[in-house]
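Amino acid chain
________________
===
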Amino acid sequence: MTTGYNLGKIASNSEAFTTLETLGLRSCYDSEMDLAPPKRTSFATGGVLNLSNLGSPMPVICGGIDEHLHETRECYRLDKTGQETAVASLKSTRIGAASVSIRNGTVLWVTGGTSHHTDIVQDTTEWLAVNPIDNMSLTTSEGVKLPMDLKFHCLVMLSDNLAILYGGSNYYNILQGQSWTIDVNSNVSWQEAASMSTPRAGHICGVIGNQEQLIVVATGGERLNYEITDDVELLCLDIVDQEYLDVNGKEWESGPRLPIGLAYAASATTSDRAILFVAGGLVDLVDSLVSASIFLFHCHNGLTSMCEWRRQCIELGNGGRYYSLAFTLPPPMTNDKIQSRALSIAAIEADHCNLDSLNMSTSLCGPESPGICHGANNNMDCNYDNGDCCLPNVNCRLCLEEECNCHITGQSHCKIP
């Protein structure tokens, strides 16, 4: 994870997580990698590109707002050294844009976004292609237009050539529920697909699945009246063959709700598309309450009736972050010291977590939120969140059901909305 807001300012560090594969869905993560962001930004967009002269795929981050609160068009690459390396400049200012890596990781497709200075919401897109001359810089050209002006939308790849666009908001801040697909190789036109039941922006998105079926995930996000939702919608697509996905006639259906409502969180899918990870985000837009939790979403055997969320054992540092980015990184990007320690750390963390509990309550103490019941801290090892969960009419946005119960009375003292 990199970029984003943290403790009222733009985050100055990146966090990376390694896992012990044999622990499967019940794995724990190490967050001590010493990666620095290529640029201190928020509201940025990006993806992973094959910059071959650097030896491995590298995350590229574009646009957003810099540490001086100025809009930026610059694109930077991330590496283990923390050195800032500019690789391109966007043609347009883009805050809240969405991007995907296409054409075997040689092109970053940047779409939509807005400018705080002009309030213009873009329907334009840009191709940032790896320069074949040096294989390190990027060349910029105009891409196919979006079906409408959009910001804080989702764009994910379903296959090597098919992308799906869904949700977001427009110039008038009207939330959208429509979805469209496009063949990124032909760029002929957008094809309208089924609409989500809940129009939303700043939502969490990703694609998981297996060789027979893909599941497009839309969850959380901002709804009307600055409300953050925890509902989940899933679009199930059958894989007819390696080149064709059956999108026609498919409808979004409800899935298991997020453990807490989240908006503007970061998400990434494992390379095998088995698990969607979600980290950070806002739990309250009015009070700017930030989540430090990490969740994973998985559907057993690709069945939507067997999907579940699991809270992980460790949390983001410094109280969490939002408007951030997450990438799945190849092994060469990881820090050697952390690679050597990942096995022992994961095993130690596992001893401290009730990994089989469906509500994933944990004895690892997370950041304190005075006056708010924090489920991860509501246990003996964490001094029962300093008694916050026993306060009358306490805010329980950071806990799950029985995690919220006061340890003295055994009852929930949560404020009823």
